């Protein structure tokens, strides 16, 4: 057994008392939490469990620095659609491998990763980190709901041979009612995710039935829903469908209100609120009300989103942005979001997210210069 300690140890829930050390075996499994002794190796800085990235799109890694910033979501989507297929499969694979390496260097041990296709299958099968793949469906024409779901299921089956995968909805504005029904059946009692309230025009689309998002979709697609005014926000329109899911990870939440949070609490699913602040600054130049989410005792987690809308895949950097803009949020709460709450969201808290005997969470050192090093 190896005994390690540091100036501070955060165990996934709280800071350990100063006299304590962690005992680990060769493979990094936690054997004990014990008093420091003469064999204890001391590290300068803070030890934390491996970090959990609850939202990424590894398959978009080749779009780093390719898309203009602060255009708003609608133009961002247009740019992604026009650019994503203009790269060779060799480049796409190279960039995926580089992006994974970056995540590992940054102390990330598990990833909730959105996939539209099988570009990330090869790297995921190597199991360098834990992946929960979310195979994403979108489509506004009800007539194709079944076909879209079947295609997503066949992609999911490939990922599932070596890691976890579920079929999920892309966003409230990009799916038909029929497609929602299909996914509710397909992924009942499973872990799902959805991009939620990322832009003001998403709420406007459902509440008032107007706005930039409606204009874009009605111009771009031959068949779209009517989107009549409902006087309800995006979340309050769709989220009651989510009661059949085990965990629901809502991503972005940039325009989520106290009323939306109250509504989500009334729905019988284990709701997690995933913040990707770097991507929000990149795309919309705005941030979610993180203080509100923490005040309301929401289960907050972090994601990097993709390199299409971020300069780095680094959960610690995402946390620091929230910390800078919302200094009132207790540091321990932010650290929990990066570790134990993230692990719970992805359903992997039996192994990841905390220093507890029997777990193998990965051990990360953050030194006084905020440099990240993986110890185990
Ligand atoms: Zn995303």
Secondary-structure map with pairings?
Elements: E1 2-9, E2 20-24, E3 30-35, E4 41-49, E5 51-56, H1 73-83, H2 89-105, E6 108-115, H3 121-126, E7 130-137, H4 145-160, E8 164-169, H5 177-186, E9 191-196, H6 200-207, H7 212-220, H8 234-238, E10 247-252, H9 258-265, E11 270-275, H10 277-283, H11 290-295, E12 299-302, H12 315-325, H13 331-338, H14 340-345, E13 363-366, E14 372-374
Parallel strand pairs: 1-4, 5-6, 6-7, 7-8, 9-10, 10-11, 11-12
Antiparallel strand pairs: 1-2, 2-3, 4-13, 13-14
Helix pairs in contact: 4-5, 12-13
The structure holds zinc ion (ZN).
Zinc ion is lined by residues 55, 57, 114, 195, 251, 305.
Give a verbal description of the structure:
This protein has 376 residues and is of the alpha/beta class. Helix content is 34%, strand content 23%. The strands form three sheets. The protein has a six-stranded mixed beta sheet with strand order 3-2-1-4-13-14, with no helix packed on it. A four-stranded parallel beta sheet has the order 5-6-7-8. The longest helix is centred in the first third of the chain and has 17 residues, at 89-105. It starts with a strand and ends with a strand. The protein binds zinc ion. Zinc ion (ZN) binds at residues 55, 57, 114, 195, 251, 305.
């Amino acid at each position: 057994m190896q005994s390690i300690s540091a100036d501070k140890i955060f165990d996934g829930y709280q800071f350990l008392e100063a006299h304590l050390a962690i005992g680990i075996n060769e493979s990094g499994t936690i054997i004990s939490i014990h008093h420091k002794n003469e064999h204890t190796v001391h590290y300068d800085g803070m030890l934390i469990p491996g970090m959990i990235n609850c939202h990424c799109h590894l398959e978009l890694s080749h779009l780093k620095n390719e898309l203009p910033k602060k255009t708003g979501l609608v133009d961002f989507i247009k740019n992604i659609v026009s650019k994503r297929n203009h790269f060779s499969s060799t480049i796409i694979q190279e960039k995926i491998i580089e992006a994974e390496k970056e995540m590992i260097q940054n102390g990330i041990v598990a990833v909730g990763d959105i996939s539209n296709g099988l570009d990330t299958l090869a790297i995921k099968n190597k199991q360098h980190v834990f992946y929960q793949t979310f195979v994403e469906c979108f489509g506004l024409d009800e007539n194709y709901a079944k076909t879209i779901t079947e295609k997503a299921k066949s992609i999911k089956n490939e990922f599932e041979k070596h890691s976890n995968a579920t079929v999920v909805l892309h966003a409230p504005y990009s799916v038909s009612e029929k497609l929602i029904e299909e996914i509710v059946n397909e992924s009942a009692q499973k872990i799902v995710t959805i991009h939620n309230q990322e832009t003001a025009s998403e709420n406007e689309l459902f509440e008032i039935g107007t706005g930039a998002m409606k204009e874009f979709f009605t111009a771009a697609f031959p068949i779209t829903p009517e989107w009549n005014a409902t006087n309800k926000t995006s979340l309050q329109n769709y989220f009651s469908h989510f009661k059949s899911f085990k965990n629901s990870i809502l991503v972005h939440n940039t325009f989520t209100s106290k009323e939306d949070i109250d509504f989500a609490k009334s729905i019988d699913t284990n709701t997690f609120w995933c913040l990707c602040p770097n991507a929000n600054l990149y795309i919309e130049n705005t941030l979610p009300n993180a203080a509100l989410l923490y005040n309301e005792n929401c289960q907050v987690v972090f994601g990097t989103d993709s390199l299409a809308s971020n300069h780095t895949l680094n959960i610690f950097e995402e946390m620091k942005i929230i910390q800078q803009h919302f200094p009132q949020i207790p540091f321990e709460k932010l650290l929990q979001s990066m570790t134990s709450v993230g692990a719970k969201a992805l359903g992997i808290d039996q192994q990841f997210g905390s220093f507890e005997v029997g777990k193998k969470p990965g051990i990360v050192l953050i030194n006084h210069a905020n440099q990240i090093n993986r110890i185990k």
